Each structure stands twice: as structure tokens, then as C-alpha cells.
């Protein structure tokens, strides 16, 4: 029971950390429907699971290397800013939301989108390294207990993401083309801001401050 409670708490903590994936998931669900948001949530859960495995196998030793941090931040910031400009200049669809929702969901594309947006954010990796340290050093879980803990964490995050997609679709009943345009711009700007923070993180390694 202690493992389950801790897993729920840390899962909810990860859910309330508002990052680029949060905005993208909401926008994606509003525009393309529940199943698009669902498959995007699958991609997010997959990337989180891979991060857990990587941190458990000891990537934290590489994170102590400043060069590794700068490369990771540079690549993540570049990918994120590309997504940001795509959303920023994304044209408003001429079809209504109900027509868009009726179209076939490209499930693999949505999984890749969720996987990429979550996976290239170094702060997600840092978050998992922090939790891994807590689990192994403070909580002193053995391998079996750690597996149960992370299963609960991932299940919690996935369930909340599915709920986000569900309620976002409910908003589509009142969404107008103008609202969709504003939403795209907000998502795009949010992604660009997060990318600038990553670039700033990289430049700090050279004692240069972007923001």
C-alpha cells in the first residue's frame, strides 16, 4: 500500500508539471478528437517508460557531464522550436471539428508526436533521475518494489492524460475557428518559450545568458 500511495503521489506530481506536452495534448485532442489524444498519451507513457529504464541503468552518471547536458539541451531545444513554429503558423482547418473528428486517426503519428515531445525534453529526464535517486536511496526499494512503484506512476500519468483528452474533446462543442487559431498560437509560443529555456541552459555552460 505504501508503494501504491507513493506511486500515485509522484504520478500526480508529474501530471501537474505544466510543460509543452500539456499544451500539445490539449490542443491535439480538441482539434483531432479523443483517440488522437489517447494515442498521444500512449507515446508519452512510452517515452517515460524508456526514461525510467535508462535512469535505472545509470544514465545519471552521464548527466553529471556538462558536455552531455549541453548536447541533450541543444537537440531537445532544436526539435521543440521546430514543433513550436509548426503550431505557430499552422493554418486553421476549413472543416468543422466534428468533421475532423470523423476522419481516420493516424494512431502511429500521434504516438510518435507524444513520444518525441516528451522524450526530447531534458527536464523530464532530470525529473526521472530525481525520482530514481529518491526510490533507490531514500525509499530504499528493491528491484521488485521499484518496478511496482514505477508501474503505478506510469499508470497514473497515463490515466490523467486520457482524462485531459476526454475533457478537451468536450470543449470542442464550443470551439470556433478563431479559438482554434488562438489555441495553435498559444501552443506554438509555449513550445518556443520552452525551447529558449533549453537553449539558455546550454549557453549557460559557455557563460552566455539568452534569457
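Sequence proposed for the structure above (211 residues):
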Amino acid at each position: 500500500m505504501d508503494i501504491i500511495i507513493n506511486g500515485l503521489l509522484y504520478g500526480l506530481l508529474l501530471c501537474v508539471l505544466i510543460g509543452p506536452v500539456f499544451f500539445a495534448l490539449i490542443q491535439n485532442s480538441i482539434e483531432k478528437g479523443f483517440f488522437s489524444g489517447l494515442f498521444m498519451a500512449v507515446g508519452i507513457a512510452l517515452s517515460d517508460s524508456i526514461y525510467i529504464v535508462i535512469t535505472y541503468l545509470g544514465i545519471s552518471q552521464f548527466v553529471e557531464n556538462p558536455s552531455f547536458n549541453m548536447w541533450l539541451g541543444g537537440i531537445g531545444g532544436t526539435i521543440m522550436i521546430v514543433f513550436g513554429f509548426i503550431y505557430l503558423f499552422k493554418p486553421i482547418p476549413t472543416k468543422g471539428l466534428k468533421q475532423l473528428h470523423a476522419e481516420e486517426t493516424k494512431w502511429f503519428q500521434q504516438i510518435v508526436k507524444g513520444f518525441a515531445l516528451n522524450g526530447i525534453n531534458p527536464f523530464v529526464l532530470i525529473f526521472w533521475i530525481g525520482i530514481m535517486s529518491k526510490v533507490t536511496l531514500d525509499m530504499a526499494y528493491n528491484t521488485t518494489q521499484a518496478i511496482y512503484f514505477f508501474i503505478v506512476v506510469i499508470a497514473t500519468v497515463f490515466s490523467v492524460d486520457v482524462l485531459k483528452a476526454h475533457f478537451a474533446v468536450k470543449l470542442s462543442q464550443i470551439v470556433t475557428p478563431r479559438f482554434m487559431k488562438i489555441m495553435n498560437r498559444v501552443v506554438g509560443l509555449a513550445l518556443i518559450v520552452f525551447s529558449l529555456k533549453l537553449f539558455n541552459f546550454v549557453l549557460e555552460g559557455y557563460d552566455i545568458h539568452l534569457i
